[in-house]
Design a protein that fits this description.
The protein is an alpha+beta fold. It contains 5 helices and 10 strands. It has helices at about 1-20, 35, 60-65, 95-110, 165-180; strands at about 40-45, 50-55, 60, 70-75, 80-90, 115-125, 125-135, 140-150, 155-165, 180-184. It has a 7-stranded antiparallel sheet with strand order 3-4-5-9-8-7-6, with helices on both faces. Strands 1-2-10 form a 3-stranded antiparallel sheet. It is globular. Plays a role in cell envelope biogenesis, maintenance of cell envelope integrity and membrane homeostasis. Essential for lipoprotein maturation under conditions where membrane fluidity may be altered.
């Protein structure tokens, strides 16, 4: 559990730094190239976790994650939009307890953290916990949805981070990814 929290913290730090690097998003200059890319289905954990990767995101696991830590990173070129998936250790703890602990640890790191929701959800018939937050730093805002679920008794953590300038759109985009998750 400590390793999972450590990796989730590292993921939050990486995404926070990427979102707050003071660079303008270059999406306006791509002339629709990212919009023409189709969404693709990603299968992890021996096919027991599947989700739809939004257009414009690609596998960056070789650069930011590693197979040895079971961390997979999908991001756009700017790093402002990202999905991090961590396949953790087996745990007997309840998902709501783990989510509450993660929320408290995030609050300890970021006193300005805004928790939008911390709720139980069902993904493909399997129980999960979803923690939605808004993170603000250096005049930039990011939307974060963290999904906790168990796959074969192992904790799976998925963090979806999007620019929070349009919070309603970011929430909708994150929810689209969450609704695409299937667990076996």
């Amino acid at each position: 559990m400590r390793n999972l929290v450590k990796y989730a913290g590292i993921g939050l730090l990486v995404l926070g730094l990427a979102a707050c690097d003071q660079k303008k998003d270059e999406a306006a200059n791509d002339n629709g190239a990212s919009a023409s890319q189709s969404a693709q289905t990603v299968a992890l954990m021996d096919g027991k976790l599947r989700f739809t990767l939004p257009p414009g995101l690609s596998d960056k696991s070789g650069k930011l994650g590693s197979q040895s830590t079971n961390m997979h990173v999908y991001a756009d070129e700017s790093g402002a939009r990202a999905i991090i998936v961590i396949a953790g250790e087996p745990t007997n703890e309840a998902l709501d307890v783990l989510a509450q602990r993660m929320e408290q640890q995030q609050r300890n790191r970021d006193p300005q953290l805004q928790v939008v929701s911390n709720k139980a959800v069902t993904l493909g018939g399997e129980p999960a916990q979803q923690l939605d937050t808004v993170i603000s730093a250096n005049n930039q805002t990011s939307w974060s949805s963290v999904v906790l679920a168990k796959v074969d008794g192992k904790l799976m953590t998925m963090q979806i981070t999007l620019p929070g300038d349009n919070q309603q759109q970011a929430q909708s985009d994150a929810e689209t990814v969450v609704k695409s998750i299937t667990l076996k």
